[in-house]
Design a protein that fits this description.
The chain has 143 residues and is α/β, with parallel strands linked by helices. The protein contains 3 helices and 7 strands. It starts with a strand and ends in a 6-residue tail after the last strand.
Length: 143
């Protein structure tokens, strides 16, 4: 069964840098990670940030748009889930992808803005309607 966790970000935290730290932690624990964005531009921004978010950090990754080799890299970024990824998905997009059940774990980052919270509440209700039990996770889970 798919596990779904929602991380409520504090006012001083931005979703992309936090997603990079989560991705690094998951990668170091041996997981594969798919970072879901809405657009190719957002994916490119996240791609750049994964190289620079922390000095000395190395998270091997690639952009998955149209990339048949995506399954050979532990981390991929794209606007649609890619074959070969079924472990962790960090959803930075505005929709829950149709293929959400292919993942063992889904992480939704909840920005403190009211509109962003409303969107993630919709996601929370959707997962519940699909028979899943989404949970809120404390931010101490990532250092």
């Amino acid at each position: 069964m798919t596990r779904v966790d929602f991380y409520l970000l504090p006012a001083n935290e931005s979703a992309y840098p936090y997603a990079c730290r989560l991705t690094e932690k998951a990668y170091r624990q041996g997981h594969t990670v798919f970072l879901l964005t809405d657009t190719a531009e957002e994916a490119a921004r996240l791609d750049d940030l994964l190289w620079t978010f922390r000095q000395g950090s190395f998270v091997p990754h690639l952009l998955a748009q149209g990339n048949a080799e995506a399954g050979t890299c532990p981390v991929a970024i794209g606007s649609a889930p890619t074959a070969g990824f079924d472990d962790v998905m960090i959803n930075l997009g505005t929709a829950v992808p149709d293929a959400f059940r292919q993942f063992r774990r889904i992480i939704e980052l909840v920005d403190p803005e009211d509109s962003a919270r409303a969107l993630r509440r919709e996601h929370f209700r959707f997962y519940r309607s699909q028979g899943l039990n989404p949970e809120m996770v404390g931010l101490e889970a990532v250092g």
